[in-house]
Amino acid sequence: MPRSPMFTAPASLSSALVLALVCSGCSGGSNDSGGSAGTGGFSVAVAEPDHLTPGRSTVGWDQLRALFAPLVKVDAKGGISYVQAKSVTSTDARHWTIKLRPGWKFHNGEAVTAQSYADAWNATAYAPNGWAGNGQLAGIEGYAALNPAKGKPRTRTLSGVKAVDATTLDVTLTSPDSQFPLQLTPSQLGFYPMPKAAFKDPKGYDKKPIGNGPFRMTSAWKADEGTTVSAYAAYRGPKPKSSAITFKSYADLNTAYTDVQAGNIDLAYVPVSKYGQAKADFGDRLHTYDAPSLEFMGLPLQGRKFDDVRLRRALSMAIDRSAVNKAIYGGLYTPATSLTPSSEVGAETGICDACEYDPAAAKKLLKEAGGWSGELTITYPGGLGLDELYKAVANQLRQNLDIADVRAQPTADWAEFSEKAFGGKITGLNHSHWGALYPSMQATLRGIFTEAGGCQVCSHYSDGDVDKLLQRADSAPDTASAAKLYNEAQRRILQDFPVIPLFYGSYIYASTPRVTGVTVGPADVELSRISVVG
Predict the structure, then answer these.
(1) What are phi and psi of 289, to 5 degrees?
(2) Global pTM?
(3) Are 507 and 12 in contact (CB under 8 A)?
(4) Residue 207: band (very low, low, confident or very high) from pLDDT cuts 50, 70, 90
(5) What is the second-level CATH architecture of the domain 291-506?
(6) Which fold has domain 15-265+512-532?
C-alpha cells in the first residue's frame, strides 16, 4: 500500500451542535450482512511489513486493513459510514462519545469492548513503547503526560479516554476538533482496538495479530515468506467476497509488476513511471484513484534568496503542469490548483492563481523581484523514478525565466535526501510529497503549514493568522463550516506562497483476470470486496 506522510513519492476524511457528522452524510452501515464469505482466494503484492501490531506498523497497511475493522469509514462522496461504531457524537467538538455495536468479537472469541479501544490507544500513546502511531493520539487529553519532554511518564493511561461500559467510550480532546470522526477512519492504525492477548504476549501478537476484521491470520508471519489470512466466519460486518488473501512481499515493484503480467500474483501497486506502459499491458484491469496527497516543491524560506513572494510565484507560473503531466505521466495526475486535493472533504480547487501556467507574467514577476543570479537547484531523492519530472521542471524554468543555470540534482538515495532536508542543507528547491492519513483538509494544512506539523520541514512555514484560522476550523460545529474555514486558511497561506504545488496524487493498481470487483476509494483498495472468478 503506497502510504507515506511526507517527502517521498508513493512507493510503496446542528441542532444542539451534535457533531456526529450526520450533517455531511453519515450512514449506519450494517451490523450483520448475513450470508457467508465468497469462495476462492487471491494474492496481493505488498512491501515486507515491519510490524503487524496496528499502532506499531508503518508498512503493513494492507494486512492490517484486512485483519481489523475501523470505527468508521468514508464513502466516495465524503460521508461517514459507521463500521464497528454505532455512533460518534459530541455537543461541543471536544467531548466525544463513541457508541460501539454490541456482539462484535475478536478472532479469538473475546468481545470487542470500549476497554479494548482504551487499552490499545494507551499502549500506542505511551512514549516508552516507541510505536509509530503515537502521534495519531496527540489530540487526546493526557497525551502530553505520556510523552514528557524529559524523563519517563508517571502514568500509562490517557486521562481523556474512559471506558464507561462495554459499548461506550468517552474521549476528551485537548481542544475542540470537528474532524475527530474522520481521524477514526481505516488508515489511522493507531485507533484500532486490541484484545487482552496482545498485552500478554506482545512479541507473539506482532507476528500473529488477533483483529476484529473480515479476515483472520491462519499462521504467524515469517519474514520474507508472505502471509495468508482467511475469512472470519463470525465477522459482524459485510462478509468478504473471497475466502482467503495471500500477501506476498516484494522488495522491487518492477518484479511485482512482471508477476501480475505472468499471473503469479493477482493484484499489485503500479509505479507511476509505468503508467503509460501499464495502460497497454492491462487495459481495463488497471485501476486508479485520486489519493489525498499533494506533490509539491519546497523552498528554503529560512534563507534569504527566496524571501520575495514574487520570486516564488514566478517560479510556479513558469511551470506547465499539464504538459509535464501528459509527457511524463500519461495524464495520470491532476495539476494542482490549490493546496488540498479534491479527495479531502470540502476541499476547493481553482484557488491558486500562481499555479496557472503564464510564462510572460512569470518573467515579469521575476524581474520585479530583482531577477535571479547564480545556480538554481532542484534537489530530489535518487532511485525513486523522479528524474524525468525534475529534469522537465528544470528545463521549463530555464527556458521560461531565462535562468541560465538550473539543475535537477538527485541525491544518491532516500537516506541522503532525508539527511540533507532535515539538516537544513538544501539551498534550492526540493521535492516534497504529503499523503494524508485521513481525508480532511486538516491533515494536509496542519501537516505542512504549522510549526508542529509532521512536514513542517517540507515548507519551513508557519503563521499566526493561519494557526488561528485552523483552530477556528477545528472548532467548527459541522463539516460544512469547518471546510469553509479550512479553505479560508489555505487562501491565506497562498498569499505567502511558501511552497510550489505541482500535482494531486493518484495511486494505480493492476490485476489479473482471476479477480473482479477491484474497488478503489478514499482509503485504498477494498480487499474484502474482491471476488475470485471461477
Answers:
(1) -150, 155
(2) 0.84
(3) no
(4) very high
(5) Roll (3.10)
(6) D-Maltodextrin-Binding Protein; domain 2 (3.40.190)
